Amino acid sequence: MANASSTDFVVNVDIPEVASVDASGDKGTPDNSAEKTAPGLLKPVVTVDQHLIGQYIVVEYDGLPYPGEVLDVDEEDLEVKVMHKIGKNRFFWPLLDDTLWYHKDKVVTILDGAPVRVTGRHWKINHDVWDQIEDILDL
User: Fold this and answer.
1) How many independent structural domains does the chain possess?
2) Least confident piece of the model among 31-40, 68-77, 116-125
3) Which candidate in 6, 26, 79, 139 could, as Cys together with 71 as Cys, close a disulfide (CB 3.0–4.6 Å)?
4) In-domain check, residue 46
5) Residue closest to 81 by CA, chosen among 114, 32, 47
6) Which residues are within 8 A (CB) of 46 and not within 5 positions of it... i.e. 6 or more apart?
7) What band does 16 get if pLDDT is binned at 50, 70 and 90?
8) pLDDT, tens digit, for every residue of 105-129?
9) Residue 56 domain-assigned?
10) Alpha-carbon distances of 35 from 11, 32, 40, 60, 104, rounded to whole Å
């Protein structure tokens, strides 16, 4: 094996910011939305209207996520009957309904359906969706 001398050097490369492009193809401001919006499977509430009634969502209350069913809506608020937490991604319906009005900003995601039953009384959210909820709420 021949002796090879190595030379250390540093290469500086300028990486341009990525600009967002809207549907018309116009470039806008740099896209930093990944830091502030829900990733992948999470579906935030954009407009509050009657189509949300009966849907299952996850709301944030005191920094923790709670799944529930939308019972009613107002201009920017949703009345939600929420489940109670019993463990990591484990919830149950309380004997007495826990119903509160939440501003649409407190909705973490709209679920594709009801949580899934794991025991006679306990329910869970889709594992991939739950992982993203934990990430966005820093749990």
Assistant:
1) 1
2) 31-40
3) 79
4) yes
5) 114
6) none
7) very low
8) 999 999 999 999 999 999 999 999 9
9) yes
10) 28, 6, 12, 18, 19
Domain span at residue 105? 40-136
By CB atoms closer than 10 A (0-12, 13-18, 19+), residue 132 is: middle
User: Is residue 87 situated within a structural domain?
Assistant: yes
pLDDT score at 40: 74
Is 70 within a domain?
A: yes
Query: What is the CATH number for 119?
Result: 2.30.30
Contacts of 102 (CB under 8 A, 6+ apart): 59, 61, 77, 78, 80
Containing 78, the helix (H) or strand (E) segment is: strand 77-82
